[in-house]
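Hi support team,

I've been running sequence recovery on a batch of backbones for a student project. Most finish fine, but this one hangs at about 90% for roughly twenty minutes before it completes. I'm not sure whether the input is malformed or the queue is just slow. I've pasted the structure tokens below so you can try to reproduce it. Let me know if you need the job ID as well.

Thanks,
M.K.
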């Protein structure tokens, strides 16, 4: 889960009407695309929302205070977050911390009233007075990067990228040489779909594939590929989070580069992982 003050918190839809946004009635920090999604989030949000309402001196939509710089603005957000945490009987969730630090505010002065949102990246806000400054600083490149990051976040939580296509993996084998990740991805994925433009899912999948490809590159550099033939390989990955777990299926690519390996076991270790065994459907070559 992640937080963006300009899109629906439940479905991550960007279709939030600026003229009549559906806000949380109490904290005024969270947006929704519909009353239904507002009610759907109520049980999860209610506890922290009541505390925010008690701690806040001024509701965001009435807060006309301006700040000298970004550091001053962030410091006030940290103080608010600390005050809420002291009254909450549990640790703040990652997206709840983002609610404070990434609250909707003007890009220049950080006031929170009568704001407009960039309708391309949905990640930048500005007041009427600073519209020209915002448009100058929020140029095409920055807007593109922020739009990409938002799309990557949405792709990750959608779960669509957790399945690396077996159709792609079947075309990978130990005879194909590559020197770097970019070369591998372009040759095996982008060119095969006849589109060299990177999508959000490509950045995520290339990240998933970087782990097994790095291990393979290391084994190759050490000249021990022949040593591990007909063997059982166990790889331990430490510090794994839920996003890393979604990319476990990408480790199948090792079996394509090391076809004589009989068994591949990936042991993942992370403080927030649920103990268990994860099994994936492999392509015909690997079964």
């Amino acid at each position: 889960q992640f937080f963006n003050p300009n899109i629906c918190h439940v479905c991550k839809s960007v279709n939030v009407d600026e003229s009549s946004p559906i806000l949380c009635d109490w904290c005024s920090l969270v947006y929704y695309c519909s009353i239904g999604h507002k009610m759907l989030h109520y049980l999860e949000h209610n506890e922290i929302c009541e505390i925010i309402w008690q701690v806040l001196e001024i509701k965001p939509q009435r807060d006309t205070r301006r700040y000298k710089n970004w550091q001053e603005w962030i410091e006030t957000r940290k103080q608010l977050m600390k005050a809420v945490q002291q009254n909450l009987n549990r640790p703040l969730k990652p997206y709840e911390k983002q609610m404070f630090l990434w609250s909707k505010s003007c890009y220049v002065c950080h006031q929170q009233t009568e704001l407009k949102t960039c309708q391309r990246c949905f990640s930048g806000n500005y007041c009427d007075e600073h519209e020209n400054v915002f448009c100058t600083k929020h140029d095409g490149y920055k807007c593109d990067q922020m739009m990409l990051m938002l799309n990557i976040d949405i792709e990750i939580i959608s779960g669509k990228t957790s399945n690396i296509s077996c159709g792609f993996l079947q075309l990978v084998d130990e005879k194909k040489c590559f020197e770097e990740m970019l070369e591998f991805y372009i040759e095996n994925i982008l060119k095969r779909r006849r589109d060299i433009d990177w999508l959000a899912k490509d950045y995520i999948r290339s990240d998933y594939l970087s782990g097994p490809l790095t291990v393979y590159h290391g084994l190759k550099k050490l000249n021990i590929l022949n040593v591990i033939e007909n063997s059982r390989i166990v790889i331990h990955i430490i510090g794994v989070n839920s996003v890393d777990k979604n990319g476990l299926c990408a480790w199948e690519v090792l079996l394509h580069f090391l076809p004589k390996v009989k068994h591949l076991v990936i042991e993942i270790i992370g403080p927030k992982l649920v103990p268990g065994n994860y099994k994936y459907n492999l392509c015909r070559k690997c079964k």
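--
Follow-up from support: It reproduced on our side and the slowdown came from queue contention, not your input. The mean pLDDT is 85. No action needed from you.
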